[in-house]
Structures are given as C-alpha cells and as structure tokens.
Predict the structure.
Amino acid sequence: MTIAAEPTRLRIIYGVDSPLCYTSVLDMTRHWERLVRRAGLPLAYTQGFHPQPRLLFAAPLPVGYRSICERLDLFLAQPCELQTAADRLTPQMPQGLAMLDLSAVPWNSPPLQSLVQEATYRVDLWGSLMADEVRRAVEALLERPSIPRQRERQGKLQQYDLRALFSEVRLLDAAATVPNDRPPQHSLLVQARCGSQGSGRPEELLEELALPLAHYRITRTSLIWQPPSGEVQP
C-alpha cells in the first residue's frame, strides 16, 4: 500500500442485495455519505452555497435490482492509505451492502458514468414453464427487427426501440445458475446498453417475452465501459 501525496480518489466495487436493493439512487447516495462519515474518512464536498458530497456512481442501479459489480468513486479531502480506508469502511457496511474491492485512481480521471457502455444481468425466473418454452420465447423476440415501446420521463412519453437496447439474450444452462436457498427454475443472461445513450431494462424484456412467471429476480453482474485508451474493459 502507498500513501497518496494529494487528496485521494478511491474506486470502490461493491455488491447490493436485500434490503438495500429496494433503495433509490438518491437514498443510496445518502447511505454512502453516512457510511463514510461513520468511518471517520475526510469526505470531499463541492464548492458553493449547497455543498454536495463528491460521490460518483458508474451507473444508477434500478430499484429492486441486485448487483455484484457496482462502482463508486469516492473523493477524500486528504490523503488516505488504502488499507486504512478499507479497515474503516468495512465495519460500517449495513446489511445488503458489501465492499468487494478498493483501489486508488488519479484525482482527475474521467467519471465512469461517461464511459459505461453496456451491462450484463442474470435474470432468474420462477414459474410453471419448461426450458424449451423459454428458449422459443427468447428466439422469437430476437428475430423481431424492432420492438417499439414508450416510457414516461419527466411527465412526457418517450418513444424508443427496445430491441436496439439488447445485444445478447440467452438461456443459461442449469449448472450456470448461482446456488441459493430457492434455486430458480431458469436463468437468462442479458447484455444491454447502459449509459447516456439509453439503457435496456430486463424487466421490460420480460414483459415482451410474456412468460407465465410467478416471480423473477434481476442481478447486475458486470459493467462494460470504454476507457480513454479505446480498449474495452469488462
């Protein structure tokens, strides 16, 4: 571990599970601000009449989604050794939030939100349906050249093509699902656009598949972005 000679920018990879998966983006920001304060780290704030904590999320996690790959850039007003930051933050993590990795990045690095291009998701399905039924529904959806839909945003209806937002949808083998207390009947791997140019929402995909589901669970498993060098990173 090395000590930075200037204010520190930490990049945190963290997981989100119940009950915090039902937290809004704004409330998640507040959770992290309180967490950093309890840890006794010197959080940096913006200038002006209404200073805001300098916390930059790579991509908003929709309410109800779980994740094993969220990224947050945390700006500290003073130098901080990585091990010290990890030792202080880890005990403050509430149920449903887990820090998976911690690293230091240059203070002036571009925000990940401007670089994120796609995300992958695991969509676990429960219901009275067979694997062939799921596979046929996915194949039929992917054969459609376009899927016109509309969303309400800021009080206005926005037209968009749902099909253009997804680059991959496939049924996973049973062995590829993650074990848990209630194993899903089937799981899909979904890769979708994620960022300022539009984001694909797996629950909208499920609406178009029109499968007889009793329950489903969406977990974001990776973020894919375009670094300044031009090399795509997972």
The helical segments are 25-38, 82-89, 131-143, 202-209. The mean pLDDT is 89. The radius of gyration is 20 Å. DSSP finds four helices and ten strands in the chain.
